[in-house]
Amino acid sequence: MKITPLDIKKQEFGKKLNGYRPDEVNSFLDMVADEMEDLLKKNLEFEEKVKSLEEKLSNYTRIEDVLQDTLLTTQKSAEETKSSAELKAKNIIDEANISANKIIAEGREELLKIQKEIEDLKNQKEIYLINFRSLLDTQRSLLEMVEKRNEEKRSYLRIKMKPDLSEEDLERVVNDFERQYDSKSKNSEDSGGELNRLKDQD
Predict the structure, then answer these.
(1) 187 closest CA partner among 125, 142, 130
(2) What backbone phi and psi angles, to 5 degrees, belong to 28?
(3) What's the alpha-carbon Rg for the chain, to the nearest Å?
(4) What's the CA gap between 60 and 73, in Å, rounded?
(5) Under 8 Å between Cβ of 8 and 32
(6) Which residues contact 104 (CB under 8 A, 6 or more apart)?
(7) DSSP assignment, residue 92?
(8) What is the chain's mean pLDDT, rounded?
(9) Rounded Cα–Cα distance for residues 13 and 15 (Å)
(10) Rounded-to-integer distance, Cα 178 and Cα 173, Å
(11) What is the pLDDT of residues 170-202, one digit of tens each?
């Protein structure tokens, strides 16, 4: 049971002969009641202050928790951003290396292609020169054959015009000329076929 200052002030005691003086007791009880009332007021103030401080502490604790969570989130986000940036940078470097290697490979392939084309052109030039020389040799041979045949014809005419040549000698000369002419005509046809073949190759 709690005692209030009012209870102290209203407290009454039984009277007894030679007991305490009632006015002094009442005065003391009033003083105790007033002191108790002050103590209760201060206690109430302290309780309100404690409650206020506890609320502030709770707010500060909540703010601290929020800040702590924010800090952790920020750190985590920073780490994720850093990891993402490092990964992105690594991917960019890898892609750049792949592109560079591809360009180098394509350049080497193009260089080999150009070198092969140059080599093919050199070979074609050699073949052309060989065919051209062969053509010139064939044409020169044909010209020599034609000139020689014309010379033989002229010789035949000169022989035919001699009055002291007998018919038998004349027939022998004609037969020899025809054999030589047939043989050289055959060689000329063979050379002409070779010439056509070289032209077809060109």
Answers:
(1) 142
(2) -65, -40
(3) 69
(4) 19
(5) yes
(6) none
(7) H
(8) 77
(9) 7
(10) 9
(11) 566 666 666 665 665 565 555 555 445 544 555
Q: Give pTM, 2 decimals.
A: 0.34
d(CA 60, CA 54): 10
- Alpha-carbon distances of 133 from 62, 115, 128, 129, 145, rounded to whole Å: 104, 27, 8, 6, 18
Residue 122, both tokens: 């050199």
* H/E segment holding residue 122: helix 22-160
Compute the distance between CA of residue 5 and CA of residue 41 in angstroms, rounded to an integer. Answer: 11
The residue type found at 17 is: L
Place of tokens 């105790």: 32
Rounded Cα distance between 188 and 62, Å, is: 118
pLDDT per position as a tens digit, 140-176 = 888 888 777 777 666 655 555 544 556 666 566 666 6
Structural contact between residues 36 and 5, judged by C-beta atoms closer than 8 angstroms: yes
Place of tokens 């140059």: 118
What is the CB-side half-sphere exposure of residue 114 using CA atoms within 13 A?
6
Give the C-alpha separation, 144 to 90, whole Å: 80
